[in-house]
Amino acid sequence: MEVVIEGKRRIKGEVVPPPDKSISHRSVMIGAIAEGTTEVERFLFADDCLRTVDCFRKMGIEIEFKGHDSVTVKGKGLRGLRKPEGELYAGNSGTTMRLLAGILAGQDFEAVVSGDESLSKRPMGRVVEPLRLMGARIEGRDGGRFAPLTIRGGRLKGIHYELPVASAQVKSALLLAGLYAEGETVVVERQKTRDHTEIMLKEFGGKISSNDGLVRVTPVEKLFARKVVVPGDISSAAFFMVAAAIGENSELLIKDVGLNPTRTGIIDVLREMGCTVEIQNEKTISGEKVGDVLVRGNGLCGVVIDGKIMPRLIDEIPAIAVAAAFAQGETVIKDAGELRVKESDRIKSIVWNLKKLGTEVEEFEDGLLIRGGRKLRPSDMESFGDHRIAMAMAVAAMSIPGQSRIKNAECVDISFPSFFETLNRISEPF
Length: 430
Ligand code: S3P
Prior knowledge:
By secondary structure, the chain is α/β, with parallel strands linked by helices. 30% of the residues lie in helices and 29% in strands. Helix 10 links the parallel strand 20 and strand 21.
């Protein structure tokens, strides 16, 4: 699918972003291994999360869709999953494959997890190695570095493991496997990553604690079903934040956004770039912070983004790169090597598209430099099959007078199926 975008400038009004992808995945996974029925309100009906639903249905879990945005998961307890017939297919979803690997490591049956072309190229050794240390038998392409993975779980033992890369998916896989291990599992993080698994496990009665970079889990006999209300996804909201931040005289209220501090790096960066971002109506729902975010565009300047903030905004770099192209001065993004192993090589995808628009960009192994503030031209852009690249470039195109195109834009369905309609609704012609 090719999407044509007529450059417009003002972004006005109110928007509710789609439900959080990370939390939606976890609600099905943790709901499936809890006792009783978990009701999930505002579940994300998008391709990635539907892959997780399919995988658990194949393991005998009843999952019902209710209305347009809720699901119920009939949990069967920690030992209630059954051996699937055929492969479990994770599609494009790294979260499905890596977290599922953790749960499968604790089961006493063998299962195969496969993915699409992009997921089959993404590194799996980062979960396979520590799960093997816990006692799981896992095989995969190239010695277990890539999917498909064949996982034969069994008697696991707790380990003390320092994450070599900052990854919430790896941390979560180990914590979920830790539910089935003998003794305590300790995951050491040098940089704090999103803690949705810890929050949800605690809500469901798990024994889990987090202190000073050490996350500890010990097995419990049972997890108990809970109602989960999923907040809006700040990673989807980020595209609208940037659209408003770069639009002249723009003002946008984004409602019910998840504001977990491990995810709010985008707000810190936009403020540092000179944008007004106000938080209103803060509350805590299902253990997660939620609030409304008001963004007012009034001109941006370049910034340096590196080090510890990176895990707090890693998925937002495509959107931030677009903000940087419209900002005055240089923006430097470093310590972001993880971008090379996302749904596409995001450093390459961003550089390719921004150059087409007429931005001066330099590529580094672990980041990029963007010289902002130049007059940009409408162009034909490429998603590289990556949802966040398609959305970021659509936001850029919205602010450049003239007609741009985004090729292979159907990938927005991975996380935000109604993205283009929503973007059109909140933008006004010059
Ligand atoms: C996610 C963790 C991050 C993030 C991904 C979702 C999660 O990946 O980029 O979109 O739900 O735990 P890594 O763990 O690979 O950093």
